[in-house]
Specification:
Blueprint lengths: L6 H12 L4 H7 L4 H13 L3 E6 L2 E6 L1 H18 L2 H26 L16 H28 L6 H13 L14 H16 L5
Antiparallel strand pairs: 1-2
Length: about 210
């Protein structure tokens, strides 16, 4: 039976995954009540765990150093009480080879080497090149789906990655090619990156 996470953990975890976000985005990430989350964030601010941040015309919340420590403590306690650590660890080991392939595919989508310019931008006029990349992305989304199922079966907060990746891929296959790597949207690359970050954050590890 999957383990449900406490709301405090979900609020802090949403910020850990999103980097910074406003009240609505934090609530939406795990389907929480927006008004309740707004109060939770104010309480967390009073405790020094979150702070308001602004970048250009975008404003929201971000974890402070104290917030990162509190988040890490909550995640570690959840792993201990749920017994899900072994599942998440095993999934990460299976995920990493797929992730290396995803990174190569993302690079190939952005760069199309040409004679004299190994870093030439992909202008997407070589349809055979692009089709090869898209075939690889489709294969990777199918390959990661059972890993998402295993994760959601252990911790409920992992639910939804397979659906989000499938929707992003479907948009790409319908011709919305920006959903390969569109930033700040549920593109294939954005959702995949978030899944990787979620695995690492859950296990208390860092990239590299």
């Amino acid at each position: 039976m999957t383990h449900p996470s406490e709301r405090e953990l979900l609020v802090l975890h949403a910020l850990r995954l999103l980097g910074y976000a406003d009240d609505t985005a934090v609530a939406r990430r795990f389907g929480l009540d927006a008004a309740v989350v707004a109060n939770d964030l104010l309480d967390a601010e009073a405790l020094g765990r979150v702070e308001r941040v602004a970048f250009a015309d975008v404003a929201g919340w971000s974890l402070t150093e104290r917030g990162h420590r509190r988040h890490a403590d909550l995640v570690a306690a959840e792993l201990a009480s749920s017994g899900a650590g072994a599942v998440v660890d095993a999934v990460l080991e299976r995920f990493l080879p797929l992730n290396a392939r995803l990174q190569r595919a993302a690079t190939d989508w952005q760069i199309r080497p040409r004679p004299g310019d190994a870093l030439a931008a992909n202008d997407h006029t070589d349809f055979r090149w692009d089709d090869r990349v898209l075939d690889e992305l489709a294969h990777l989304v199918r390959a990661v789906t059972p890993l998402c199922t295993d994760l959601a079966g252990a911790l409920d907060r992992f639910t939804g990655y397979d659906v989000r990746l499938g929707r992003a891929l479907a948009r790409v296959e319908r011709g919305e090619r920006s959903y390969v790597d569109r930033p700040r949207a549920d593109s294939v690359h954005t959702v995949w990156f978030e899944l990787h970050e979620d695995l690492l954050a859950t296990l208390g590890r860092s990239r590299g």
